[in-house]
Amino acid sequence: MREFRYRFRVEFYDVDSMDVVWHGNYVKFLEAARCAFLRDVGFEYMNFRDIGVVLPIIKMEFKFIKPLFFGDECEIRVRLNEYETTLKLNYEIYKDNTLIAKASTAQAYVDIDNKLTLFSVPEPFLKALRSRYEI
Amino acid sequence: MREFRYRFRVEFYDVDSMDVVWHGNYVKFLEAARCAFLRDVGFEYMNFRDIGVVLPIIKMEFKFIKPLFFGDECEIRVRLNEYETTLKLNYEIYKDNTLIAKASTAQAYVDIDNKLTLFSVPEPFLKALRSRYEI
Amino acid sequence: MREFRYRFRVEFYDVDSMDVVWHGNYVKFLEAARCAFLRDVGFEYMNFRDIGVVLPIIKMEFKFIKPLFFGDECEIRVRLNEYETTLKLNYEIYKDNTLIAKASTAQAYVDIDNKLTLFSVPEPFLKALRSRYEI
Amino acid sequence: MREFRYRFRVEFYDVDSMDVVWHGNYVKFLEAARCAFLRDVGFEYMNFRDIGVVLPIIKMEFKFIKPLFFGDECEIRVRLNEYETTLKLNYEIYKDNTLIAKASTAQAYVDIDNKLTLFSVPEPFLKALRSRYEI
């Protein structure tokens, strides 16, 4: 299983009065990385919507190890942890070779119309995943 | 024409690395004040949606005079400037009796379905405005 | 051990294109609740700073159960989980009597000057906690 | 006078419940473009700080012409409008060849220590500007 890498730069508006990235902004970094990962897979939120599925976050966890500063250039390494009943991704944020933070998210596959959780991976997404990752 | 007053407190996440409120966060303060104003009028975004109208911001202007700090308790004074063809509001942000910032927003009345600008105030909103303000 | 309650309203800017509160905004809600909790204790971030201590978030976890919508009025129930070596708080977000989300945060006590983690609760904070909570 | 171009992508967290970019997020786009412009000039916020100067925003204006959607790839064209007593920049946001929004910001040159506005461009910044732009 390969990992997907997403690069970003810390902006001025990301930083709080302690001169480090405000912890809540890591949620944005993860989302940008996750969307880039799905773009790379070839099946994005728009594609899910087209088949009547949305992917609300049902769980997220963060461990902050070192601070990030304005102007830092970073990399998020995204790994697919689970996709069968929920979509679980693990993230590691690096600045150069220093581990800055670890995180994970879990998303449900939810039917747009009846709002029910599907508990199984939508077929077209599974197909896209398989064509890109060895699962 | 009376003015509407909205109170808020500056949170830690509002403050940037210069220890003052980041200028972009004033857009949030205005929106919260504007929604409170419409709640007071008795005709909110939900009510607009029910009659098939949305109110996108088409213009906004800010003048920043003094900084705000974490924990500051402030007041926004909202005044109705125009409502006939677009909704224009003026805002003054005060900390105690010190003027912190001035701002204005303009919103179009837009038909949800065909995305066309109406250029005239929806009747139910006008009625609600009139029952509350001397216009 | 009593719990502290903090009330807030969901604003328009909190909501995403699925018409529900974007998951990242819960981090803000928690921070506002946490600061209100510390205000209630009588020992805020400013007081920590005055004794040379900052409290970076080192861990946070969220479980999202039900969605929140624009205009919802909610309550966060904050409970002190640990304070001896790190400050750990648990949060439950309620709309009326429905549990919306559960979360927890852990903060280190860090010396501002040498950036070292203290691993023990600063005395003035402990005193303030004890005068308010039965610990 | 050349213009500086900055590219960005609209993320999911930028979009509001009307499925378009929330107006307040344009402030972030501008700041990222402005910082990239200063990076290109070779004199960034950090360099200002090193010579004891900060650049608070004292004015900003936005005109929104067309909406932006999740996933849109855009370009901001930044033009230097004034630098002698305040730093004024003009911005045009384009998606392909469609003008999406126009904006401007004004920043004061402020002495970090005494908080006084300088009303004149700091010499090292002027030098950097001149080596990059024909002014």
Automatic annotation (TrEMBL), chains A, B, C, D:
This is Esterase. CDD domains: 4HBT (cd00586). Transmembrane segments: none annotated. Its EC number is 3.1.-.-. Belongs to the 4-hydroxybenzoyl-CoA thioesterase family. InterPro entries: 4-hydroxybenzoyl-CoA_TE, HotDog_dom_sf, YbgC/YbaW. GO terms for molecular function: hydrolase activity.
